[in-house]
Amino acid sequence: MDNSSESNVKVSKHYQKNLDYLNRELGVPDNFDIVLREMTIGGKKIAIYSVNGMVDTQVVSIILDALVELERADLVVNALQTLVKGRIVGLQVSEVDTMDKILYFILSGPMALFVEGQEKAIIVDARSFPARSPSEPDIERVTRGARDGFTETLAFNTALIRRRLRDPKLRMKLMQVGRRSKTDVCVAYIEDITNDDLVKEISEEIQKIKIDGIPMAEKSVEEFILGSKIWNPYPRVRYTERPDVAAVHLLEGHVVVLVDTSPSVMIAPATFWSHTQHAEEYRQEPIVGAYLRWVRFMGIFAALFLLPLWLACALNPHLLPEWLQFLGVQEVGKIGLIPQVFLAEFGVDLVRMAAIHTPGPLTVALGLIATFMIGDVAIKVGLFAQEIIVYIAIVTVGTFATPSYELAQANRLARLFLLLMVALNNFIGLAIGVLILFFLLWRTKSFGVPYLWPLLPLDIKALGTVLVRSPLPIKNKRPSILKPKDTIRQPQGHDEK
């Protein structure tokens, strides 16, 4: 039966008809993990559906004990009310009358109970997900601060946010995506802060997704709601695995999208500068945080521009003043500088990918092989100039210093583009490449928010908070570009003290 007709199927009074339908749809008994238990209680037949491994066996035992104690008189009149209100207590229980909802609940983990002669099923939430405990994300580590991080279970992730924001206005809107996967997607926002149009746009775009499933979770959702532009590598949403980072953005007026089975949540909208900030800056004194931010800015700048700029200088030493002549190379090597640079870039990417696929205990050995056996030998045999290794190392450190992995990868592609422009036309090619890159960023938007805001369009006060990690007592305004309902964070006027 197709999905369009399935949504219209109602629970029948005929007990066996309901079982035949569900057994056919769920593949019982072919699917070993779909559990069907039938019993007769009080003279009425009862069927219980569940998924093996997704229900708490202790809770199931308690429910079964309660059902066994029922007498025939208890089920003669209003059997559902007797079961729901009289016996199954302490659990989230609801009544459902359509088969599509029942199938969704069963495959999501809750139990479904059918009572002979009833036109509704009882859904009992006795889920016990296979899940890992919250742990600190590897990419977003801090020296001090919370060590918990999002997991692959949606309910755990929403609880981690609720723990930090005990605001009754915090909304968690749940919807399903995927005709077959029916993956839970949650849109989180604070009702009296976040702009209604932003929430409406994101929610409507998610509801428009028509696909069989989204096994790649939040990345698949992003490509649908923003549109995949293959010519633009820059991320238009921010990802985080830290609940405290998600909570901060909710308080600013952003929308957070959580997808079940993913430990990363999506923050929208996002600007270029959103990807350059890190939680570590706010776990230190303001002056220390400002210093760390500027060091990070220099690392990002070096990762993007240092190697193309050096290559242009090395290819045109006659254009350099005397005090910059050291930027050239003493020995070019057996192949030209341009092939050397691209080989070194691809080599670093190859080592990085190898490190991802290498077991943890062997990563140190991989680093030693790449550093000494490949890098050192390549210089001695004349494959690479010594200067190239130095600049590649600086660029690689700057790439790893970029807080956002997505931004680091985008800058990597932008750097390769600038290197190609230098190879084509030296300094003029570099200048043209920078202009093209700037035009791309200027034209990029995230849910209507300019990507380079607050630089373009210029917002002096907001730009100051981007360039300098200011103390929280004087950070009184929410980002104006988000058009929040409540623009003031500290109504007591702390910024006037």
List keywords for this structure.
single chain, alpha+beta, 3 domains, five-stranded antiparallel sheet, 16 helices, 13% strand, disordered N terminus, disordered C terminus
Radius of gyration: 29 Å
Distance between the termini: 68 Å
The tally of beta strands, per DSSP, is 12
Major sheet strand order: 1-2-4-5-3
- Unreliable parts: 1-6, 493-497
Helix content: 40-55%
**Mean pLDDT score:** 86
> SSE order, as H and E?
HHEEHHHEHEEHEEHHEHEEHHHHHEEH
Major sheet attributes = 5 strands, antiparallel
Give the count of structural domains.
3
**Would you tell me the structural class of the helices and strands?**
alpha+beta
Instruction: Estimate the global geometry from the Cα principal axes.
Output: elongated
Share in β-strands: 5-15%
Number of helices: 16
In words, what does this structure look like?
The chain is of the alpha+beta class and 497 residues long. The protein has three domains: 15-124, no CATH class; 154-270, no CATH class; 282-449, no CATH class. The protein is built from 16 helices and twelve strands. The protein has helices at 3-6, 15-26, 57-68, 72-76, 79-87, 99-108, 154-164, 196-207, 218-226, 243-252, 286-315, 337-357, 363-380, 386-400, 405-443, 460-467, and strands spanning 34-41, 44-51, 92-96, 111-115, 121-125, 170-177, 183-190, 238-240, 255-259, 265-268, 445-446, 449-450. It has a five-stranded antiparallel sheet with strand order 1-2-4-5-3, sandwiched between helices. Helix 7 (154-164) packs across helix 10 (243-252) and helix 11 (286-315) runs antiparallel to helix 14. The radius of gyration is 29 Å and the shape is elongated. The chain starts with a helix and ends in a 30-residue tail after the last helix. Residues 1-6 and 493-497 have low confidence and may be disordered. Keywords: Membrane, Transmembrane, Transmembrane helix. One of its GO terms (biological process) is spore germination. One of its GO terms (cellular component) is membrane. Belongs to the GerABKA family. This is Stage V sporulation protein AF.
